[in-house]
Amino acid sequence: MNPEDRFAELWTDYLEGELDDQSLAELRELLEADESRVTLAADLFQTHRLLGLVVEEEPSRQDDFVRETMAKLPSDPDDFVGRVMSKVRKTKSVDAGGADDNSHRPNRPRVAALGLWVAAAVLLLAAVSFYLLPGGPNEIEIGSAGKPSTGNASVGGEVRLASSARATFFGELSPPVGTVLVPQREYVLMTGMVEVAFPAGASAILEGPAVFRVTSGESLALDVGRCSVHAPDGAEGFRVDTPASRVVDRGTRFAVSVSETSVTEVHVTEGAADVYENADPVAAETNIPTPLVGQTRLVGGEAKAFSTARGINVDAVPFDAGVYRGGLPDRVVSYEASEADGGGAELLQSVTIQRGGRVMKIAVSDLIPARLTWFRATEPRAFLCGSQELPVPSTDVVFDRSLVTGVINPDGSEQPLTSDPIMEGDSGTPGMAFRFDRPIFNGPGADVVFFDLQTFGNPIDGDAFHVSPLVFREGLHSHTIRHYDLTMESPETQVLANFYVHLFAQPADSVTQLQTLGAVQQRQAMRFRGLAVGIDLSDLGYAPGESVDGLFLQDALDDKHMVDPVFIAGLPELK
Amino acid sequence: MAIDPPFDDSQTESALRRVRSGETAAFETVVRGYERPLRAWLAAHAPPGVDVDEIAQRSFLAAFTRLEEYQPGTDFAAWLFTIARFQLRTETTRLRRIADYHARYGPDLLQRELDRRSDETPEMWTMRLESLQMCLDSLGDSLRRFVTWRYDEEIPLEEMAARCDRSVPAVKKQLWKVRQKLQSCIETRMATAKGGSL
User: Closest chain A residue to B9 measured between Cα atoms?
Assistant: First the structure.
């Protein structure tokens, strides 16, 4: 074998972690003999490392990284205790999760010796941390049964709101993602869903209506509503307390539903959970430690109902796999935009969206632009918005990157279209049509992203509109959107920059008229917000993978407010 | 789909202002914006045995806790990457001090070469990462499957051999070929990109 072939063999073995001491010595000699081999080795090593990064670079992985990093931040940069406790928690999670638990990390060396070395290093760190860092227990529990209350309100300080979907809370705005949930505070989720992340890795998805409290870094109290818990390795022991029971995870996925009469149903999807009956639900509501009696172990595929109406009752109920929710629904999660000189969001930069369960951030340059091809309104209104002076033709601004320029107040219909819209002449269909610069394909989740201007006098959930195919065929139909992903109440919705509306003295019944009719500019005194929603082509009846050139849009005429599209674009095909 | 690092000064500075005023959650914007280029740069420059994500997180934590030292309006990315360089250096020094490290993870020359390259800009490594993604897309299915098996499924060589009905040495040759091909593709794309920007 010539030296180059041998080098290739040895270097591959090295990257694969299969090099023994003798071969390593031989590899060293080959490297020392020829500088170009060092360069090649480094090139291939770096490509190898980047491959590890690229292949595992699922958007959800990025979210995990961000979440993990945020969870490690001390609550106050100057809080030394917070920093130390953060490390203590980290030590605990390493200890509980296994020393070599780096499955999602790039370049996971698989040579056994390395695993041992990493384990030894982690154990050493853990040992050092144990002796040098203050504190014993990693989490302090408040008012939990069987243990005295510490009275320390700061426990569970690292429990955070990980994500939310159309969540509304009673009497308050939804907290922004990343917010530390206040221990023992009652949260009343009216509608929508939130995901709560716990320090040891457990997560709970709560569906409104639900009333819940974070009771420690490893527990949640659910007074009413439904939550789905995933407790991965290292988070075993996570528990959900309900008025009637305590559900303790044993490494699993399970769902807990609590009715208004405090009947608790537990459905275990995977693994096992132990359910203890609560002997004194009234005491449990007041956070007084309560005696737990009985124990029922449920394993995957089992479900039971627990109630305390006439003594403690445990009844088998049919297992329903659909009760457990593995993730929040597909949606527009958030967006980024540049800040205008006078303040407020202006140019869209990226959209973060969940599609088919995958959260991805898409740069605006990767979105597929749309162009206005038809417009008809039956009454004079403001049809354009943007700066005081619009470019020529003025409709060029319609779907540019700006969130304060667009064609607004198109006409519509109470009834959505059931046949092809007419896009010429006096009998043209009221509304607007747009075509994408290149076809978009119906993939999982949303395929089109839509932004709307909205202010406080307008519907909180966004202006309802119909979206229809440009050409109907059997199986295709219109779809009405009445509730946006990012509403006036969403913390991710941004306040927009100031803009002008262009008031038209007569109705515009074509794109040409929109470009040529005279209009009066009026500066908007109120601050508007940029609402967003994803449009899923499947909702219009398109088959998976089917391509679409354009769509027709009409206001739903369900109230006096009209939809104000400021940005519409297709999403790139999912790979 | 692309996840471009923003390197948007105004957005970063705005988030940092909010962090300084006590809004810890605003730091997420910073982490989200820079995690990709930072992890890419670290992945390319960290020697074997270094946990890239750990160093990336340490770097963000250090930036967060030392934010008072950052002068607003200057180059946050440069400041962050300087922290990351020091974090990586600290870790590699620690590893060097552990007996037997060299014997086990070896080639000093590789380490030296990686050190020599550590001044390459983060932006360049983000470009390389994007080039690699495009190169992967252009890789034929017969080679692409080795990437999937090795880096996604992380199955042993023996299982790869069984799946493609070849010997283990043949699989190793395929992996060598894949890496070389991707490396060459990246270089070509980088050269084209440089040429195109002139």
Answer: A338
What is the model's pLDDT at position A140? Answer: 28
Closest by Cα among A398, A351, A420, A363 to A508: A398
- Residue A439: what pLDDT? 94
Which positions in chain B touch A48 (Cβ < 8 Å)? Answer: 179
pLDDT at A570: 96
Tokens coding B181? 């091909």
Question: pTM for this one?
Answer: 0.54
**In chain A, where are the structural domains located?**
3-55, 60-132, 160-323, 331-570
Using the Cβ of A559 and the Cβ atoms of chain B, whether some distance falls under 8 Å is answered with no
- The structural domains of chain B, with segments of one domain joined by +, span 1-119, 139-198
Residue of chain A nearest B68, judged by CA positions: A77
Q: Per-residue confidence at A309, pLDDT binned at 50, 70, 90?
A: low
pLDDT digits (tens, 9 = 90+) for B155-176: 778 888 888 888 888 999 999 9
CB of A133 less than 8 A from some CB of B: no
% pLDDT > 90, chain B? 9
Closest Cα partner for A488 from A452, A529, A520, A429?
A: A529
- pLDDT at res. A285: 43
Query: What's the pLDDT band for A24 if we cut at 50, 70, 90?
Result: confident
Q: What is the DSSP string of A271-292?
A: SEEEEEEES-HHHHHTT----E
Exposure of B176 in the CB half-sphere (CA atoms within 13 A): 19
The confidence score (pLDDT) of residue A99 equals: 28
Nearest CA-CA partner of A554 in A429, A431, A453: A431
Name the pairing type of β-strands A529-535 and A494-495: antiparallel
CB of A332 within 8 A of CB of A448?
A: no
Answer yes or no: do B172 and A66 touch at CB < 8 A. no
Say if residues A379 and A83 touch (Cβ distance below 8 Å). Answer: no
Q: Domain B1-119 class?
A: mainly alpha
Read off φ and ψ for residue A338, nearest 5 degrees: -75, 160
Which chain A residues contact residue B14 at CB under 8 A? 339
Instruction: Fold for B139-198, please state it.
Output: Arc Repressor Mutant, subunit A (1.10.10)
CATH C-level class of A160-323 = mainly beta
Residue type, A60: S
Please tell me whether the interface predicted TM-score (ipTM) of this complex is above 0.90.
Answer: no
